[in-house]
Amino acid sequence: MKSEQKIVLGVIVGNRNFFPDSLITQGRQDVLSVLNEQGIDAVILDEQATKLGAVETWAHAQKCAALFDENRHRIDGILVVLPNFGDEKGIADTIKLSGLKVPILVQAYPDDLSKFAVEFRRDAFCGKISVCNNLYQYGYPFSLTELHTVHPLTDSFRADLKRFAAVCRVVRRLKAARLGAIGARPNAFNTTRYSEKLLQAFGISVSTADLSEVFGTAEKIADNDKRVGERLAGIQSYVPTGGVPAPSLVKMAKLGIVIDDWMLRYGIDATAIQCWDSLQHNYGVNVCTLMSMMSESLLPSACEVDITGVASMYALQLASGKPSALVDWNNNYGNDPDKCVLFHCGNWAKSFFSDVKMANAEILATTLGTENTYGTVAGRTPAGPFSYARITTDDRNGVIRTYVGDGEFVSDPLDTFGSRAVVKVPRLQELMKHVCKHGFEHHAAMNASHTAQVLNEAFSTYFGWDTYLHN
Fold first, then answer.
1. Element holding 420 (H helix, E strand)
2. Which fold has domain 178-470?
3. What is the pTM for the complete model shown?
4. pLDDT digits (tens, 9 = 90+) for 6-25
């Protein structure tokens, strides 16, 4: 899948020549070792290109920048490594000359208290401050390791690197995302309004399709078309369909073919679909199962033409590598102020469930008829990690706002239908006040991970979005 493509980092090893050469050689070996261990490719100067393959002088900066420029379409981020104090100008100049605008992580080696003689001292603790000062002066946003100094061959740095790789994935892919809006938003839902222009300003493009085109094309496909049989088999192997009328399943198969073709034609990464009520009135099924299948395949799909909702799903997916879902912050959970019920008719990816089946949308069926609402995915999410996120376009102020946070799926009793979960979020009431006061939608994206810190870094540091981290 796209979000699983290997991350490539441009690596700058900083040096000051009055520190021991051995520190640079060992530092380079350590970093390349941990990058290889984490499955990350490195673009780094050859040891013969400059002294020890490090960057110190203007000439070194030019050489490293040229190498980065040659690989600019591969490089997702830059890792600055400081085995010693490093040269602040050489590092900043390299990034400036390369022309890259990617996330930057600054790492500095710790000193050993038993090795404070001249031949072993690093002073990277101090050098990191100087490098960051220069990056700030040059106007480059950057990320920091959890500890100010950290050895590359430690679990702490491995966690830093994993988090940074996820940030790089979010930044690179989200700012080039192509989202598909299929149908008009439900007339009753002003809440899913959004600004295409604000999204486009950050590189996020929206393509549109009219439902009449989708239905018309689907109805022209013959029941005995080979693709219908293949799609039908895919649906039936994805989720149990017992009790669902065969004509409804055939309609879903045809609809899936049309949506797949349209997404391929326009290079769509994620979709938001008018899931009610034109679909039920004019075509006679729910699209939930098809949306679930797309999300499970890391092509996230959101309800009610919620484009910023599916952007939120996509961001969480990029951060974790796992499918996301769109949910309603739907119900209080008894008298527990830190728990609530998440719900939707039923389009969550099936990996959110331990047991799943196809059903009909029971709430929509009360007005649209059971026979027109088959196609939901029903199941309960078991206990586990939970991250949530919401992107919205604040058109009144011309900005993009977000909130992110982590919580837990819990196994507390819940007797209801549809796609559902009970979650625990510390200080949930405080979060709900923020959601309401700042005009956020009732929809949020969720993911079975703890990736709020990744999205906070990507959104606030590299996109400059107004981001609320609830922790």
1. strand 419-424
2. L-fucose Isomerase; Chain A, domain 2 (3.40.275)
3. 0.96
4. 999 999 999 988 888 889 99
